[in-house]
Structures are given as structure tokens and as C-alpha cells.
Amino acid sequence: MKKYAVVFALFILSMITYIDRVCISAAKTPIAAELQLSDTAIGLVFSVFALGYALAQIPAGWFADKFGPRNALVGVVGAWSVFTALTGASWSLTSLVAIRFLFGVAEAGAFPGSARAIRNWLPAGERGLANGILFSGSRLGAAVSFPLLAWMLSRWSWRASFLILGIAGLSWAAFWLLWFRNRPTTPLPEDHSVTVEPSLGVIFRSKAMLLAMTQYFASNFTFFLCLSWMLPYLKKQYLLSDSTAAAYAMTPLLFGATSQWLAGWLVDRIYHSPLHAWSRRLPGMLGFGLGVIGLLAVTRATTPDMAVLYFALAVFGTDMTISPSWVFCSDVAGKNTGAVSGAMNMLGNIGSFASANAFPYLERMTGSASAYFAVAATLNLIGAVCWFHMRSTEHIPTTEAEAHP
Prior knowledge:
Layout: H1 2-26, H2 28-35, H3 39-55, H4 57-87, H5 93-107, H6 110-121, H7 127-155, H8 158-179, H9 200-205, H10 207-223, H11 230-238, H12 242-271, H13 281-298, H14 304-319, H15 322-333, H16 337-366, H17 370-389, H18 400-403
């Protein structure tokens, strides 16, 4: 059936998203050498993506709601693929920072647009696994990006490699434009979603979104360590070689991909059971519970095997919260799914930004990485509490009068 093909196409898109996102890190050495960039300058290049990505989440989600996921995803994938290719044309720090900022702005619409496509094509009882499959692609894309870029850089220059990646993204956009339609020919059963776009003020003041955004901050704070400091931490803490550390660092990402499928299946399974009202909440609470256990265990690890295993457990847990988070946004926002999921993803990426800066700061301040893992565990506990109070039946009000009767 075409709805499954839609989910598979979005899975591929998710992989492309993270390959294009992480490739700048994999190509750090040749880029820094040719453009004569310091580690501080490279850090700016890394972080400016997150800034553009976070700032554009809500507008990108609104665009998907307004013009449909077909036009939205063609536009954002096409735009970020152009900026991926243009990365290879950078001639200075300023040009590279500007291009990666615009790349972040363009890529912001990927997951809100995908969320809107899933809502349009799948009924509420099937969206859990669909979102799990979607986000597993991001973990697999991140995991393969390092060996993929290493292979590409062995054959071509970093400039040519970015051009090739840009062409791959444009190819996906062309396929989506020609093949996808915003809705199936047979309408889905009505799920009583809201039909009026809420104002941004109402979105941010609703209890449902405050809880969703808070817990998403917590999950991203934990996961982003996989993409930032986990590899150098393992090398420094356990005196590992580059290849050994890279193999270890891939493990949590693979655990996360597996977790996405399990959590998505669990969401849908519980939805069709007598515990229907807990179908989003139970996986979220269980996931953050595993996250707390894994993160606290990392502080007691004495070998790299133990450290990676415990952190993989933490990532497995926090990634269990991703699918129910996006399904929850679809539940409470209805036809405003793009904008509302974008708001949640915005705060999540602020969590990623905070994570990247908190790890070295806390390690420098305390002399140990244990402080970071303790803070992350505390945030996971807060996330579990948030999920306990989250109700999919509580729709976001559409007007200020509804928000403040």
C-alpha cells in the first residue's frame, strides 16, 4: 500500500538529513587545513547550524501546514541540498558560517513536514511505528555518516564530496515532487483534530506543549552527546585509538535506531489495547526511566565496554520517547501538526545546543564527566514526570479566549 511507501520514503529522507548534518564533522580535518580554521572557528561552524535549525522550526512547520507536506518537503530538501553543495564552495570562515546557518534554516522543515505527511496518510493507531521508522533513519544516517564520508574523502576532495551529497538530496526532492500527494485518495477517519491554526502565544502557553517541549529538551540533551563529545570523551578517558573509539561511538546510535522501532510498535500496540489512554505516556515514562538508570551507571563505569553499554542503554531509553512525542503533537494539534511539532523540536534543539556546551563546561568545572551525566539523569527524571501529566485528549486551544476563558 502506498502509505507504507510514504513511510519508507520519509525513512530515506531522515537518513539523508543526518548524513548531510554530520558530514561537516567527518570532513573537519581537510576543511580546517585548507581554510586555516582553528578548533574554536570549527566549533562556531558546528553550532551555527543548530541556531538556524532551531529558529526556523515553527515557521517551517507552519509552512507544511499551510502548503502541504508535498510542497514543503520539496522546498526544504531542495534548499538544504543546495546549501550542502555550496558548503564545498566555501572560501573563508565567514562564508562557511553563513552557508551552514542557512543550511540549518532550510533543514528545519524536514521533520515537521514529515510529521504532517504521516498525519495525513496514517490513522492515529498507526502513527507510532511510522514515526519510529522515520526517526530510526536519523540514527542510522548518523551512524553511517562517518565511514561514508571517510570513504568519499579517500576518493574525492571534501569539496566534491559535498557536491555529491547535495545532488543526492536534490534527487530525493525530485522524486517526492513527482510521486507524492498530500493526501490519500480515500480520506482517513475523522479524529476530531482542531481545525484553526493557534497563535504562537497560545502554543507556548498551553500546558500540553509546555510539557512536550520540556521533555523533548531532556531527550535531546542526552542524545546529542552521541553527535558531539562522546567520541573524544572515550578517546581521552580510556586512551583509545581513533578507529576503536569510532566503533564504540556508533554503538549508542544503533541502539537508538532499534529503540525507535520498538517504541513505535509499542505506542500502536497500547493504542489498540484497554490502556489506550496510556499509549503515548507509558513508552515515554519507561524510556526516561531507562535513561536515568543508564546515565547514572555511566558514572560508575571502569572500562570503555561498560561506559558504552550503559550510555547505549540511556540512549535506547531516551530514544523511546521520540515516537510518542511526535504522535502526541499530532494528537493535540491536529491540522496544526507541523507548527506545533516544530515548536517542540525547536526547544529540543536548544537542548542539543545546551548539551554540547554543558559537557566541556561541567567537566572543566568539576574535573570529571560524571557531573554531565548526573545533570542529564536529572533532566530524564523531569521528562518522566512530564509524560505522567501529558494527555493526548487535551487539545491545544485555538484562540486566546479559549486559552484564558
